[in-house]
UniProtKB/TrEMBL annotation:
<comment type="similarity">
    <text>Belongs to the bacterial solute-binding protein 2 family.</text>
</comment>
<dbReference type="GO" id="GO:0030246">
    <property type="term" value="F:carbohydrate binding"/>
</dbReference>
<keyword id="KW-0732">Signal</keyword>
<dbReference type="InterPro" id="IPR028082">
    <property type="entry name" value="Peripla_BP_I"/>
</dbReference>
<dbReference type="InterPro" id="IPR025997">
    <property type="entry name" value="SBP_2_dom"/>
</dbReference>
<dbReference type="GO" id="GO:0030288">
    <property type="term" value="C:outer membrane-bounded periplasmic space"/>
</dbReference>
<feature type="signal peptide">
    <location>
        <begin position="1"/>
        <end position="23"/>
    </location>
</feature>
<protein>
    <submittedName>
        <fullName>Xylose-binding protein</fullName>
    </submittedName>
</protein>
<feature type="domain" description="Periplasmic binding protein">
    <location>
        <begin position="45"/>
        <end position="311"/>
    </location>
</feature>
<dbReference type="InterPro" id="IPR050555">
    <property type="entry name" value="Bact_Solute-Bind_Prot2"/>
</dbReference>
<dbReference type="Pfam" id="PF13407">
    <property type="entry name" value="Peripla_BP_4"/>
</dbReference>
Length: 360
């Protein structure tokens, strides 16, 4: 009888150890990590990485997420990410999802991934100069710049007016591969108006002149202060500032307020990301709009891509993008914009922010 009880107990232990609800190993009983995720390290990227990991684990896949420590865009952060990707390759992952710190820095490490037969998904920021990239997931970033430019054209009535308007331009860090798409997407829309009746008194029209190191708010504020002094010399006011994102828009807003611009005389200012401080500025009237990229859409599409790769089924794509090495099948998500007319519907009624968070 005692031997029978021991055998029964041992059998129960075996059943409990093979419990299919153990999601890390649900699809891979050997315990192998199937999906490796490598991203920069800030609140936004941690949110994205955590969301992808959670959705994949719910589907039964084992996932390891790594965030590159270090100051944004620094060589230390780049080196940390390369080291983390090497670790994931050594762990024999089947798929890598990578948001690069620097889109030009991963050619060598991804050559190793390719040699190991690992599929690579470039996430949000396109990985450049590598034939190891299998798929890309991101936003239609030219559309972001186009939305911002079209908004200014409509609000300034540029199609119908003959008099001049003044405008300035702020974009992000030059090492961010998306910056080119934001900037040139906007400039292409504004091209004819720049030749006709948009005046840029700073004469800053090249990407290098309009770039903001590390997207830092204080850097944008410092440059805006210099631009304001130019307008004061010409006894001119600023009608609009096209900012590629909210951190630069916030720096522009701070400089304008300090210079005496009021809500009644405030220039039109664009942005991107719907950062909570910028949404508050939209409500107050010191920022005009912000392009919203609902990242849950992109994380869900990423999960669909990974699942298709691992199940050897058709991977969902709708575009191709070129990374300087080859054309890559891609899924590009569309964005929308938020302004004073729709912020409550888009952001509060949807649950993106609560009224308490916006201090309404």
């Amino acid at each position: 009888m005692k031997k029978l009880l021991i055998l029964l107990f041992a059998g129960l232990l075996l059943v409990s150890c093979s419990d299919p609800t153990n999601t890390d190993n649900q699809k891979n009983s050997s315990g192998q990590i199937e999906v490796g995720i490598a991203m920069p390290n800030n609140v936004r990227w941690r949110r994205d990485g955590s969301d992808i990991k959670s959705k994949l684990e719910q589907a039964g896949y084992s996932v390891d997420v790594k965030y590159a420590e270090g100051q944004n865009y620094s060589q230390q952060q780049i080196s940390n990410q390369i080291s983390q990707i090497n670790d994931l390759i050594s762990n024999n992952v089947k798929v890598l999802v990578i948001a690069p710190v620097n889109g030009y820095s991963l050619t060598s490490v991804l050559a190793e991934a390719k040699s190991e037969g690992i599929k690579v998904i470039s996430y949000d920021r396109l990985i450049m100069d590598s034939d190891a990239v299998s798929y890309s997931i991101g936003w239609n970033n030219e559309q972001v710049g186009q939305l911002q430019a079209e908004y200014l054209i409509e609000k300034l009535n540029l199609e119908n007016r003959e008099d001049d308007v003044t405008m300035e331009f702020f974009t992000g860090d030059e090492t961010d591969i998306n910056v080119q798409s934001y900037f040139y997407g906007a400039m292409e829309v504004l091209r004819d108006f720049l030749a006709k009746n948009i005046r840029v008194y700073s004469n800053d029209l090249l990407l290098s002149e309009c770039a903001t190191p590390e997207w830092k708010t204080e850097k944008a504020k410092e440059r805006m202060e210099r631009i304001i002094s130019i307008y004061e010399e010409y006894n001119k006011t600023i009608d609009a500032v096209l900012c590629s994102n909210d951190s630069t828009a916030q720096g522009v807003t701070e400089a304008l307020l300090a210079a005496g611009y009021t809500e009644d005389s405030f220039p039109l200012i664009t942005g991107q990301d719907c950062d909570i401080d910028s949404v508050k500025n939209i409500i107050k009237g010191t920022q005009s709009m912000s392009v919203l990229k609902e990242t849950s859409i992109m994380t869900s599409k990423t999960v669909d891509m990974v699942k298709a790769i691992l199940s050897n089924t058709i991977v969902p794509v709708n575009k191709t993008v070129n990374n300087g090495e080859k054309n890559i099948p891609a899924f590009l998500c569309d964005a929308i914009y938020v302004d004073k007319d729709n912020w409550r519907t888009v952001l509060v009624d949807s649950g993106y922010y609560t009224e308490e968070e916006l201090q309404l």
